[in-house]
Amino acid sequence: MEQRVAEMTGRIVEEVASCGIKLVASLPDTWIADLIEAFDRDQRFIHVPVNREESAIGLCSGAFFGGTGALALMGASGLMTCVYALTKVNYTYQIPLLICITLRGSLGDQAKYHVSNGLYLLPLMDSLSMPYVIVDNPDKVALISKAYGHSRVLCRPVVVGFTRSVLRGER
After folding, report:
1. Which homologous superfamily does the CATH classification assign to the domain defined by 2-167?
2. Which of 149, 141, 170, 99 minimizes the C-alpha distance to 15?
3. Which residues contact 118 (CB under 8 A, 6 or more apart)?
4. Distance of CA 69 to CAs 48, 52, 63, Å?
5. Is residue 13 a contact partner of residue 39, using CB atoms and an 8 Å limit?
């Protein structure tokens, strides 16, 4: 399983790099711990661990104005805490942003305390008209580039949600 996690992590990092992204701001989540470490080690990226999800949104949005492609990487619950920042800043000022999240609370998550994420995350994004794609098998990793490009066309955030099975190399 560790080999599958490493392979998937490598594929995701390469896909992000192919977008021209240089800055990754992240918050810890066990599902993406390997991914965070990979971005931190990779010299193609500036990795900034942040203490709040809104800080990742602000940092990555500011990077856009400096001409730097950026990715905010966090858990599902973290995205749900960012509604005001995303609607007030990114929607109002038409700032594109790629956000990658875990799909906590979805099928395969055995943690009872994440159930609310599974119940409310997708309806929340739908209510905000926030485009998202779900990477629920390894063949969908290329959706990262499409989501990044779409955020530039829309001038709004686009979310890529990863299932546990993809991130943790489970079958």
Report:
1. Thiamin diphosphate (ThDP)-binding fold, Pyr/PP domains (3.40.50.970)
2. 141
3. 103, 104, 105, 106, 109
4. 14, 20, 7
5. yes
Of the candidates 30, 40, 39, 13, the one whose C-alpha atom is nearest the C-alpha of residue 77 is 30
Q: Are the beta carbons of 14 and 144 closer than 8 angstroms?
A: no
Residue ranges covered by each domain of the chain = 2-167
- pLDDT per residue, tens digit, the chain (171 aa), is 789 999 999 999 999 999 999 999 999 999 999 999 999 999 999 999 999 999 999 999 999 999 999 999 999 999 999 999 999 999 999 999 999 999 998 877 778 878 888 889 999 999 999 999 999 999 999 999 999 999 999 999 999 999 999 998 887
Token couple for 165: 């099975």
Strand segments (E) across 5-96: 21-26, 46-49, 69-74
pLDDT at 53: 96
In the numeric block, which tokens belong to residue 15? Answer: 């896909």
Q: Looking up tokens 């005001």, which residue turns up? A: 84
Strand partners, 133: 160
